[in-house]
Specification:
Number of strands: 8
Shape: globular
Distance between the termini: 16 Å
Strand content: 25-35%
Structural class: mainly beta
Strand order of the largest sheet: 3-4-6-5-7-2-1-8
């Protein structure tokens, strides 16, 4: 099975920042990975393009893709507002791991975490769906715009996204 690669082209205050590419574990986490894939392509008429990274904690994570409320309180999956946790078989073994944010057990939607560090204490909390292929330098640049409480100093958006 070919493991799909998708990307987020990020922008800082409307100016290009760079590309984050990532591999989806479609063979291991099919439902969650398909949700991320379709939201990346926008093929259902909605998705990540134009959404922002609303929460960045340096040395920990970048959180984004709430394309309904743009502040971490919203989001929408291709299966409806929320969908159930899939499997917790993949672990937080290194920086660049990506997982779907949730509002509690079985409450996944569209929001994504990109981890800047190994975060093994999160195993079995959020479903890991992929890992970064390229762009850790972009994540590091984004971290410089975050804060301990997660508030960003400038607006970082996903200017474009799709499957490679």
């Amino acid at each position: 099975m070919v493991i799909p690669t998708s990307f987020f082209d990020s922008a800082l205050e409307g100016e290009p920042l760079g590309r984050i590419s990532f591999r989806l574990f479609l063979n291991k986490i099919p439902k969650t990975a398909e949700n991320i894939h379709v939201l990346s392509t926008g093929e259902k008429g909605f998705g990540y393009k134009g959404s922002c990274f609303h929460r960045i904690i340096p040395g920990f994570l970048c959180q984004g893709d709430d394309f309904t409320c743009h502040n971490g309180t919203g989001g929408k999956s291709i299966y409806g507002e929320k969908f159930d946790d899939e499997k917790f078989i993949l672990k937080y073994t290194r920086p660049g791991i990506m997982s779907i944010a949730n509002a509690g057990p079985n409450r996944n939607s569209s929001q994504v975490f990109i981890y800047a560090a190994k975060t093994e204490w999160l195993d079995d909390e959020h479903v890991v769906f992929g890992k970064m292929k390229e762009g850790m330098n972009i994540v590091e640049a984004m971290e410089c715009l975050g804060s301990r409480n997660g508030k960003t100093s400038q607006k970082i958006t996903i200017a474009d996204c799709r499957q490679l």
